[in-house]
Design goal:
By secondary structure, this protein is of the alpha+beta class. The chain has a single domain, classed as SH3 type barrels (Roll), CATH 2.30.30.100. It contains 2 helices and 6 strands. The chain has a 6-stranded antiparallel beta sheet with strand order 4-3-2-1-5-6. Strand 5 and strand 6 form a beta hairpin.
Length: 89
């Protein structure tokens, strides 16, 4: 299988789009969605990054975090068109 064929099967995610995340037992919070895969989400900034606290374990304080998919009840990513938002679980 060629690299091009493998990439076509990968799940595409709009990068650097705003998203609202609802964690179990928490109010919905916003963050910038950098990347999404089956394991979870890479997010940056927003109330969600503040809520998660220290996201980088290298001793450097950053606002990029990995959020495990099993902690997310639902999320809604803003779409690039005027048709509303796309959601997923």
């Amino acid at each position: 299988m060629s690299l091009k064929q493998k990439r076509s099967k990968m799940q595409a995610t709009k990068t650097n789009g705003r998203a609202t995340f609802k964690l179990f037992g928490q109010a919905p919070m916003q963050a910038t969605l950098l990347h999404r895969n089956q394991a979870g989400f890479w997010i940056q900034g927003g109330r969600l990054a503040e809520f998660l606290g220290g996201c980088d374990f290298s001793g450097v304080e950053v606002d990029v975090c990995f959020l495990s998919a099993n902690k997310v009840e639902w999320y809604k990513a803003a779409s690039g068109n005027a048709h509303g938002a796309a959601s997923g679980k």
